[in-house]
Amino acid sequence: MPSDVVVSDTKLVFSKIAVTHMGMYRCEASNSAGKDSEQINLVVNEPTDNGTPEQAPWIKTELSFVPVKKGADVNISCSYDGLPIPQAEWFFNGYKINMNEKRFQHTAQYAKRDSSSSITILRVQGITEDAFGDYMCRASNSLGMNQATIHVSGRPGPPVLELDNADLTWKVQSYEPVDEYRVYYRPETQDEWNKYETVRVSKADNDGSDKWEHTISLMPFLETGQKYQLQVKAKNALGYGSFAKDYVTIEIPTNIKEAISSSSRLFAISSLCTAIASLLLALLMV
Fold first, then answer.
1. Can you tell me the distance from the alpha carbon of 132 to that of 62, in angstroms, rounded to the nearest whole number?
2. E strands, 192-284, in order
């Protein structure tokens, strides 16, 4: 460790940061039960002629999925910055976009600068189905590069999943009306998504916007006492969209179905008693 770095309790104190402090620092904690450690790579950039330190690019995008209609005009953008000011490029499914390709003949790239960052914008006019896919914006300068990806499609986007006891709710974006969903499930020990249940869309799923939401109970097709992993994807006229970014895991306790079964029997007995009482009352009034 550099001699001018002071250890103060659980902190390292650098009185005047310099390039000589650059390197890997490791913090280690231990007790009678064992030990653990974490490493931090400290990077120190030299200042430029005007005193501003150079900086490798950073890049971000507000949206990771953009739903579109086939034939619509689409604008996608990324914010970025660095010093020296990075160069921004766009890629489609891993390859740099060629504006001479038929699907990108009406595509333009332009940029603007505000007080804190640059914005690169890609405009695709009259987007076709073969231009659905992953658009990556990459910013690079002499210190490195960074990138962000936006998925653009007319098919439904990746659902957002939420579990509430044995109920599964998902939300998905799609400009085209959603026709149906598939709920995939597998035991925690398996790798393949071989089993699924098809769920039809209901009128309550959509309020006229591009957002769709549906809730189902998982108990009719999942066994109790076993852990399952769940995934969902939605379908519209253009086909099925992508899976959710992350699956969810559930284990339905055995006593839940037993409780529901007991409750159903009690309800059936109560209904039968009510019907018999009504019949007897009707006979007495004759």
1. 19
2. 195-200, 211-217, 227-236, 239-240, 248-251
Interatomic CA distance for residues 259 and 261, integer angstroms: 5
Which range marks the domain in which residue 229 is found? 160-254
> Are 66 and 137 in the same domain?
yes
At residue 42, the 3 state secondary structure works out as: strand
In this structure, are residues 256 and 224 in contact, taking their beta carbons and an 8 Å threshold? yes
Measure the CA–CA gap between 182 and 124, rounded to whole angstroms: 31
88-137 per-position pLDDT tens digit: 999 999 999 998 888 998 999 988 888 889 999 999 999 999 999 999 99
Which H/E stretch holds residue 122? strand 118-124
Range scoring the smallest mean pLDDT among 30-39, 82-91, 271-280: 271-280
Q: Is residue 21, in this structure, part of any structural domain at all? A: yes
Q: Are residues 35 and 117 in the same domain?
A: no
Q: Domain count of the chain?
A: 3
pLDDT at 41: 67
